[in-house]
Amino acid sequence: MAYEEILYEVSDSIATLTLNRPAKLNAWTMKMEKEVEQALLTAEHDENVRVIILTGAGRGFCAGADMANLDGLANSNSSAADIKKILSERFNGPRRDGTRADFQKTYSYLPAIDKPILGAINGATAGLGLVISLYCDIRFASDQARFSTAFARRGLIAEHGISWMLPRLVGVSNALDLLFSARLIDAAEALRIGLVNRVIPQEELQAEVRKYALELAGATSPRSMRVIKEQVYNALFQTLAEAIDVANEEMVKSFTSEDFKEGVAHFLEKRAPAFTGR
Fold it and tell me: Does some domain include residue 237?
């Protein structure tokens, strides 16, 4: 597929997806939304890809929804029913058999992608851009990155599941602070409250995220990462006993996998692993 608003490349078992509207700080559009979804599904189904990096071109990661689109809604005379009809087409993500309905909504499908998604947050991240970053599995931020929920300052609400995801990352009080005030926070505060995993100097961000991605791609079992990701996100809806039962079932399956045999063999033979993901 030819992309117009993103860049997509694969090398060294890493798929890098770059939001590419730098003049607009990568403001989100419907075209970008469709291209991101297609690229993520392409990476998921590509056996040569083991890790996915999501980042932005230029000074921004994603400054939120393109305001030109919001202006059209703000100045329309459409009723709530009309707007709901228009937006309802966007409320569901790709259908996936055997996946919780929670992870089949717009943007919430990212946790269902069965490969690690690393967010390389290179700059301004606001509104919808912040939502997208939260659905990445791990977030690395540039020391120049800035974050805002933005919604309350546009007369909007906590959109696309941010009311569920944000408190799980930063706690209820911090989440309400960020949502109520929509204030801008820097990378240091984002790290302190748990919004991001690590802060890296701007000029080193892409190289450091890629270094981490290379470690995942080369040193860990793709099968293990796939199962672990599913376990962790599903466990958010499970009791401890249920999570243990699932782990016990998956443990038995792992003992018969090729990756388990390779994991033991490369350790005993003191060599680099050659995992197949099976």
Answer: yes
